[in-house]
Each structure stands twice: as C-alpha cells, then as structure tokens.
Automatic annotation (TrEMBL):
Keywords: ATP-binding, Biotin, Ligase, Nucleotide-binding, Transit peptide. CDD domains: biotinyl_domain (cd06850). It holds the Pfam family Biotin_lipoyl. Its cofactor is biotin. NCBIfam families: PRK08591.1. Residues 3-448 form the Biotin carboxylation domain. This is Acetyl-CoA carboxylase biotin carboxylase subunit. InterPro entries: ATP-grasp, BC-like_N, Biotin_BS, Biotin_carboxylase_complex, Biotin_carboxylation_dom, Biotin_COase_C, Biotin_lipoyl, CPAse_ATP-bd. It comes from the Bacteria.
Amino acid sequence: MRKFNSILVANRGEIAVRVMKTAKSLGYRTIAVYSEADAAALHVRMADEAVLIGPAPVQQSYLDSAKILAAAREAGAEAIHPGYGFLSEIADFARACEAAGIVFIGPTAEAIDLMGNKAAAKRRMIAAGVPCVPGYEDKDQSDATLIAAAKKIGFPIMVKAAAGGGGRGMRLVHEEKKLAGALGSARSEALNAFGSDELILEKAIVEPRHVEIQIFADSHGNVIHLGERDCSVQRRHQKVVEEAPCPVMTPELRVKMGAAAVEAARSIDYRGAGTVEFLLDAENNFYFLEMNTRLQVEHPVTELVTGLDLVSLQIQVAQGEPLDLEQSEVKLQGHAIEVRLYAEDTTQDFLPCTGRISIWQPEEGDGIRFDAGIDEGQEISPFYDPMIAKVIAYGENREVARHRLIEALKNTVLFGLTTNRGFLIDILNEETFAKGQATTAFIGDLFDADRLAAKTPTEAEMAMAAVLFYQIERDRAKAEALFASDQLMDWSSGGALLTRYVFGADENRTDVTVSPKRTGGYDVVVGETPHFVEVMGRSKSRAQLTVDGTRKRLHCEAPSDGVLDITDDGKTLRFVNEIAFPLTAVTAAGSGQVSAPMHGTLLEVFVKIGDTVEVGTRLAVLEAMKMQHDILAEVAGVVQEVIASAASQVSVGDLLFEIEAADDDGK
C-alpha cells in the first residue's frame, strides 16, 4: 500500500476534531473540508489547511465526492479519513479514492458494498455460519411477496432498509393489517436517506440487548476483536447511551460473540476498523444484526477500557503495516459509559433544535472525556445531525463511571440552545439502568410523554431566579450610572425596596417579590410563601446561593432583558418576567394554522385545498437534521390554504396550511 504523510478528514464536527487530534499527535499534516455553514467551525480552525467545498446542504458539500476529491488534490492530501456518516460507507467513494491514488483509511470498496446492504450481508453471514435472525432478505420486493414472507416468519416483524441504518427506513409492525402502510413509509424514507428503497424483514426479537463487537483487521490476514459495547439504550432505534463492557457479559459469551464477529470479518476479507452488531436475548442467544464498515460514534468507550487509540490503529493498518497486537494481549479494564448530547427538545417529541451556543464550559475531571466539535458563539444549523458532543466517563467499575458521568453532565455549563442533557441524567439515574438491566425497550417503557413533559420550576427555583434577575438588573443600572456608591446598593430612602416579577402565564402565573435586607440577603415571597435567599457568589455563568438555609449551585445566563436561563442540578429552566414582556396574542395550539416546527425541506405534501382532515391526519413530511418528521393536523376540518409545496425549503414558523375547523357537531 502507498505510504502517506497527510490526511484529509472528509467530515465535520466532533469526529473531524477527534481524528485530527490523533493524526496531528502522530505528525501527520491535516486538511479539513467545510461547507459555507461551517466556515468558523472548530475542525476548520484546528486543521493545518482547510478547503471550502460548497453550500450548507450536505448533497452540495459533505456528500459530494467529486468536491472532496478535488479538495484533496488541491491540498495535496495523500490519504482521506471519512469519519462516520456522510461518505464513510459509500463504496464508490472508496473506489474513487483508489483511482485517484489517494489512500482510503477504511475497508475495501468490496467489503463496504457487501456489508452496506443488509440483505446481501445477511446472506453472507448465514453462509459463514454466523447466527442470524430469521427473516426475508431476497430480491423480490413486491408487497405481495413481503407480506407473504412476514406471515411465514410471524409477527411482530421488523421492516428495515437494506441499504442503511440509524433507525431510518425502519418500522416495527405488530399485526398484518399495518404491514402495507409500514412498507410504503419505510421505502420512502429509505429512498430519501440512502438512495435505495430495498427492504428486508426480520423477526422482531422482544426486548433484546443491542451488543456489538469491535473488530480490527490488517491486510496481512490478522483479525482480532477488542471486546464488546452495550448500546441497548436507544430511542427510535438510535443509540443514546453506550458502555463497555456489557453489564451482563460473561467470559464464555464474550469468547463466542468475539469469535463470530472475527469470522464475519474474515469471511469478507475485511481490513481496518469495523463493528459487528448483534441482538442478545434473555437466554444469551445472539443474532447477527449488521456490520458497520467504519469507526463507530461510540468507539471512545472501547478506547478507555482497552487503552488503545482506534484512530491510530486505523492509520497504522492503512499504511499497510500489520497489527502489532494479538488477541491474547487485548485486556479489558474498568468500565466506560458514553452519552450523546443532542440539540433537541425532549418535551416536544425530541424535536431537533437550532441556535447559537452562547456559553460552553465542559466540566472536565478525573475519568471524564469530552469529544466535541463545538465552541462558544457557534451556530447549530438545521443542515446536520443534531448531536453536538459526546460525554464519556471511565471508572474502575460501572458505578464509579456512572456517577462521574452524571456529575460531569450536571456541572457542564451550556446555554444558547435546548439539549437533551436533563433526559440523559434521568436515564443514568434510573434504577433499571443503574442495575444494568436496560434493554432496547428501556426508553419506550419508562419515558412516556408525561415524564418527558417540561418541568415546572419549584418555589425555591423561582425565588432564586427572582433574586438573580434583581441583581443582574441592579448591576446593569449601576454600570450605566455616573456616580453610584457600593454603600448605597440595595438601599432606598423611601423605605424597603420591593421589586415584583411575574413568571408563567394564565393559571400558572406566579407573582414573586424581592426585598433586599440591610443585614444581607433577600426576603422573597413566591405567591404567598416567604423564602430567604442569600447570594454567596455570582459570575457571568455560575451562582452559589442559599434558599432557606439550603446551599445551591446554579448555572445562569441572562440572554436578553427580562429573560433568565438557569440550570439547577442538570435541569435547565427559562424564566421570562411577564412584567417586562406582557403577553401578546399567539396562535393557540390546536388552531387551524399549521406552521413549520423547524427549518428543513418538505419532502411530500399529502393534502390539497378542499380536503377534509381529521385530528392526526398526515399533511406533509419535513426532513430536518437527517430525520423525517410528520406534519399532522391538530384540528378536524377542511383545508382552506396549502402554502407548502414538495421539495421546498421552509423556516421555523413558516405557515404551511390553513384548516377551517369543523364545528363541535362535525359541520
């Protein structure tokens, strides 16, 4: 294989930063590529050289292989690391690299082709003797054939896109009458996501664990595995928490699963880093799920328990060198857990969010690792995956790792956009997870809409917010005054100062009054309940207070007048002083006006003017942040206006449809 001294990273965000860290530490020249939306991104600033490859949409930038190769030629890159996602599992891109004389840091195009198609991969694994889930993976894709196969397999059935993963093009079907609809929607999503609408069927394994084996192979015939990761905590088939080792793994089971994974890689003459994924049932039976022919998002947990740098191993193998590690030398020590920090609103069905990161202060400490590609001031756009960082904790045992991770999440300061941080903390604190008993059904079983609903602030939190509001406004007024003595702060010649705030609205409206005491601290009345608050210390982003004698440490930010964000024990709350911002008329939930919930592209529009719709009728499909979101009618009635059109770009709040609501009697 051709030797190389420079590496272009054909990716963005945290994985681009992570690959560059290792490459630079090994002495390689690094080249970044970036879209117009990422001009100021961390991975661009970190690289030795950076090349603009096009507009923000991925089809015109990160997924355009011709532009990536042109950038490599322009920068003199001798190798390309694809990271994960984007072009990492596109066989034609690997071929194009080879044809251009550029080393592709990954497996051969043939291996990518074979394992990238779930149907072909499963047929090869069956031939290699790797245990597989009963299913249908043949060429005939007619509805009649698939329905007949499903009846033979038996319900429940998993419908899966043959050409992709990540939960896209995947449907769980419990009964035959819903299968035809699931086939249609899965085909549409698969075609949009992967360019292929081929499907496979699998018998649904009830409440399994998702356990994967990290393998490594060189071009000299050596194949080893680096142990397993448990990725069972998932939402809509997308991983949320990953850990190594698996909590229920036994040495005997690890040997069996490891041997199956090694055989899977050996049977396709694999090279580089790969992951063989299995479903593990309650009786420790395991079944091949798929093989990912790239580095995984969750690779850090394997690095922490093995002490190995997987990117370094990838580069070593790509240089044509043999692995300098034998299976007997792989030792797993301690425990590591990773969570994926997403820009999403868990109270709104995990709707991806955009915004500008105003404060980012990761809480680093013993056993804590942050893999992130973000920085303060960075805009999180609607064009890319909403994962903004990974937080990983290591400990000598699982409990130490779990507690370290919870504290790292709680103590990290992050303002400017909504994230799933509180949800992650709730998962890690949940008894089922703490006992290592979580399966793929964990989130669906324990986190319903009521539990995910927005948290109501406590009286103590309202009291602290009011005092912080008061101090921020007081300090701002002092800074603007020509002459203001510190001795006169919180003092009035007309008697006790009394400042009123109003939080919430309608029946949840709460009056809060703040009165500073000359002896220090503040008397605060929340509704009709008195509290006493002292501020022990406050900076731009942190505050330490006592409420009725209880010490609290908060993160805080006042992004604008009359608005205060606080994070208390990992829970972020927004307080708006309604005196500063009187309530204005807004479109009520359940009205006939249907607006875009976020920036994105409308893939399909299903209704026209004059159509009668019911509550829940599917009006359109919006694609944003790599996911498809159904736009549903919130009222029954008749469609009066259709402003939306397929293939158009929309912004958050854009009016899409107007529905004239039916009367209570249905007219």
